[in-house]
Amino acid sequence: MMQRYRIKSSPEREEYLQVLRKSEAGYQVRIVRCYEGYESVTESFLEAHLFEMCLHTGYLTESPEPQAVPEHAGAARVFSVA
User: Fold this and answer.
1) Per residue in 40-65, is it b (16+ CB within 10 Å) or e — as a string?
2) How does 2-34 read in b/e, with b if 16+ C-beta sit within 10 Å?
């Protein structure tokens, strides 16, 4: 099961991070941001020390259950891979 974390953001936004793979150097992650009917999905690498700092500061909080991405009528999806 993929680990999911909620990203600290403004109340009207739904943002979360999924850990796809873990290595000694860090994490391959998918970041999903939903706002005003649009969904942005990006994948990138996050170094281990930066990931740990985000957890320590509360920028990322573990999500006990997978969060469903809100379904928006006519929502547009934007994908990018870093």
Assistant:
1) ebeeeebeeeebeebeeeeebeeeee
2) eebbebeeeeeebbbbbeeeeeeebbebbbbbb
Q: What is the pTM of this model?
A: 0.72
Phi-psi region of 74 (alpha: psi -120 to 50; beta: other; left: phi over 0): left
Q: What is the mean pLDDT of each run of 10 residues along the chain (82 residues)?
A: 87 92 96 90 96 96 65 51 54
Residues 30-50 have pLDDT tens digits of: 999 998 889 999 999 999 999
| Radius of gyration over every alpha carbon of the chain, rounded to an integer in angstroms | 13
